[in-house]
Here is the input.
Amino acid sequence: MRPDVEPTVCLDFEAAQAKSLEWLPLAVRFKLDKTHLTFTLKEWQTLSVAMRRELLFAPLARGHSGFACRAAKAGASTDARFLPVGNESAAEKQEPSSFVLAPTGN
Here is the structure.
């Protein structure tokens, strides 16, 4: 995407729920990915419509007027896919349990 083009609109092919901001529009999802932040659908839906609209129109610019700052203030969390290696909890550091498939009875 060109740096001078900001994703600040709902796209024509998006579902009515995304256009009404009930669901996360692709522009918001794009900005969340770019800033390594995330909202669950439930978290998104607890935001006021005004805040959802503000996040949709917010530029990716750095600083207090940028999307990341506004999203963090609204309750977005860091996307776990982008956490530094070594910050895993003790449970995540354990090897996965092994399992045995049961015979299918053929």
About this structure: The chain has one domain: 1-80. The first strand starts at residue 37 and ends at 38. The radius of gyration is 19 Å.
